[in-house]
Design goal:
Low-confidence stretches: none
Helix content: over 70%
Largest sheet: none
Protein name: Probable membrane transporter protein
Mean pLDDT: 81
Pfam families: TauE (PF01925)
Order of helices and strands: HHHHHHHHHH
Number of helices: 10
Distance between the termini: 26 Å
Family: Belongs to the 4-toluene sulfonate uptake permease (TSUP) (TC 2.A.102) family.
Strand content: under 5%
Membrane topology: Multi-pass membrane protein
Shape: globular
Keywords: Cell membrane, Membrane, Transmembrane, Transmembrane helix
Oligomer: single chain
Radius of gyration: 17 Å
Length: about 250
């Protein structure tokens, strides 16, 4: 049941549910931050694959841009994971909390922003308008974040894709998730190799998570973009509170 609800949340917000799973594993199962991140990755991988499939059915993802981002993410994910595994769990949790707060504040501002009178919103653009090297750079950013925090690479790059590249919110979420698939595999292997992944707990969560992903994606496309961003921000604030409870 918990896995299904997390999968639904991930489908709506394009984050695979991992950001929510990590603080819950720490709070309920009393896991260290690294173990919670590694276990969440077991659940995240199939949920991300399912979510990407659903997003692609709604609006075709630019696979060339995603491949460029994935190439950039792989090495940086491994580097980020090595950094995280060497940190004190409490310090890593505080860093993770600050990361979540920053993204939440950004989305609250974005959801409330209105264009000045007489000046409409800037037109949306497509991935084909940009050189693929830019997506490789974004993939490196996503990979580093995903390696350090276990998940969250897509959460970090979605604001870049919506503000700098001016993609739609749902388009950015689908592209970002597609970029991080190889990096997520690298992160899971790295955390598991260091004994920081509980497969007996992660696999049932993974099975549960995939059932409600399609419904979450449908809701994401049904919601107005400002409301989707506000929902994203509110969920991140809830996650931050859960992290602080554990600290």
């Amino acid at each position: 049941m918990s896995g299904a609800l997390i999968g639904f949340t991930g489908g709506v917000l394009g984050i695979g549910g991992g950001l929510l799973a990590i603080p819950l594993l720490g709070l309920i199962m009393n896991m260290d931050q690294q173990a919670a991140q590694g276990t969440a990755l077991i659940m995240v991988l199939p949920a991300v694959l399912m979510t990407v499939r659903q997003y692609n059915q709604q609006d075709k993802i630019d696979l060339k841009a995603a491949a460029a981002g994935a190439a950039g993410s792989i090495v940086c994910t491994w580097i980020g994971a090595q950094i995280a595994l060497g940190l004190d769990p409490s310090r890593l949790r505080l860093i993770y909390t600050g990361f979540v707060l920053f993204i939440a504040i950004f989305y609250i501002v974005q959801s409330q922003w209105r264009p000045a009178a007489g000046g409409g919103p800037k037109p949306r653009r497509k991935t084909q308008d940009f050189h693929k090297g830019w997506f490789a750079l974004i993939g490196m950013i996503a990979g580093m974040a995903g390696g350090i925090f276990g998940v969250g690479g897509s959460v970090l790059v979605v604001p870049i894709l919506t503000t700098v590249f001016r993609l739609t919110q749902t388009g950015a979420q689908g592209l970002a998730l597609t970029m991080i698939i190889p990096g997520t595999i690298v992160a899971l292997i790295t955390y598991a190799a260091h004994g920081q992944a509980d497969w007996l707990l992660g696999l049932p969560l993974a099975v549960g998570s995939i059932f409600l992903v399609p419904y979450g994606v449908r809701l994401a496309y049904a919601l107005p973009e400002p409301r989707l961003k506000l929902a994203f921000a509110c969920m991140l604030l809830v996650i931050m509170v859960l992290l602080l409870i554990k600290v």
